[in-house]
Amino acid sequence: MNNLKKTLLVVEDEPMMRRLLLHIFSEKYNVVLKENGLEAIEWLKTGTSPSVIIADLNMPEIDGYEFMAEVRKYDYYNNVPLIVLSGEQGSDDRVKCLKRGADDFMTKPFNPEELEIRIEKLASLLGDKAGVSRMDGVKVMYKEA
């Protein structure tokens, strides 16, 4: 595993979609795959902080809304961009996700290039420019000169 790569956490219950996202992004990112929100939360509790989270809405155990609420409860993960990638197409779903902590929303089927651009832009805006550095599980806020 290349530690210079950013980590992309994919929370998706469909095996084919997990494999597709792994195939698309594994060259550029360390891709961590979790089948549902509970597995992802357990992984996050180990102190690992992804650069970006991509989550589905319709999953077993807990759905994407519950997953977002759980992740956003912790200050440590508030600056981690969260993109919802879902088959839900309604405006109400998008608004609900954005209100509950998603930073972006894309519908399936999706354009891989568009998703990659969104990942890069959000990681840059929320990660680098927020002035947040994560070292050894400790969040350090610093002021840019």
UniProtKB/TrEMBL annotation:
Keywords for the protein's UniProt record, in alphabetical order: Phosphoprotein
GO annotation terms (biological process): phosphorelay signal transduction system
Gene3D superfamilies given in the database record: 3.40.50.2300
Modified positions (4-aspartylphosphate) in chain numbering: D56
Residues in Response regulatory domain copies: 7-123
Superkingdom, natural source: Bacteria
Pfam families: Response_reg (PF00072)
SUPFAM superfamilies membership: CheY-like
CDD domains attached to this UniProt entry: REC
Protein name: Response regulator
Taxonomic source organism: Luteibaculum oceani
